[in-house]
Design a protein that fits this description.
By secondary structure, this protein is mainly alpha-helical. It contains 5 helices and 2 strands; from the N terminus they run αααββαα. Helix 1 (about 5-20) packs across helix 2.
């Protein structure tokens, strides 16, 4: 159901697996074969994705026998955006369904502003969703905002019929 390519999907799957085994008390390492087997993914692609994630500082790794990968930060400190942005273009450009020469060179197509809104919603979702969600982490609830001065309270009373 992801709107992104297979490489970004593989990266999300790999990081979500590392989030599942994350333990702040001890470093749990998984190699690319472990992750590929658990997520039913091709091992060479998982290995390539983990290398890119390691270079970006999302995961750490150690080579050789007994080596493997682990999250560089707790799962709630890694957003989906941190991962997807490494594999997908998330810039402000939205592909026009009328073709690349339509929007921006004349009037906007009929879908232009709706597509911009969907893109903004997706980026907001990616930036606010962490891998903590994969392991049941729930962020603390924000305290309710105090009422503004001069605001009247509404009792939401329904009129009698």
């Amino acid at each position: 159901m992801s709107p992104y390519g297979k490489t970004a999907q593989t990266a999300i799957a790999a990081v979500s697996r590392l989030a599942e085994v994350y333990d702040p008390a001890r470093r749990v390492k998984l190699n690319s074969a472990d992750i590929a087997e658990n997520r039913h993914l091709p091992q060479p692609v998982v290995a390539k994705v983990l290398t890119i994630l390691s270079q970006a500082g999302v995961v750490n790794g150690s080579p050789g026998p007994g080596g493997g990968y682990w999250l560089a930060r707790p799962p709630e400190g890694v957003t989906l955006y941190d991962v997807v942005a490494l594999f997908e273009r998330l810039d402000d450009n939205v592909s026009c369904p009328y073709g690349p020469q339509y929007c921006g060179t004349g009037p906007h197509c009929p879908l232009h502003f709706d597509m911009l809104k969907v893109r903004e919603q997706m980026v907001t979702f990616l930036k606010t969703s962490t891998f903590g969600r994969f392991v049941g982490y729930t962020p603390p609830a924000a305290p309710p905002a105090p009422p503004s001065k001069g605001a009247k309270r509404s009792l939401n009373v329904l009129p009698k019929s």
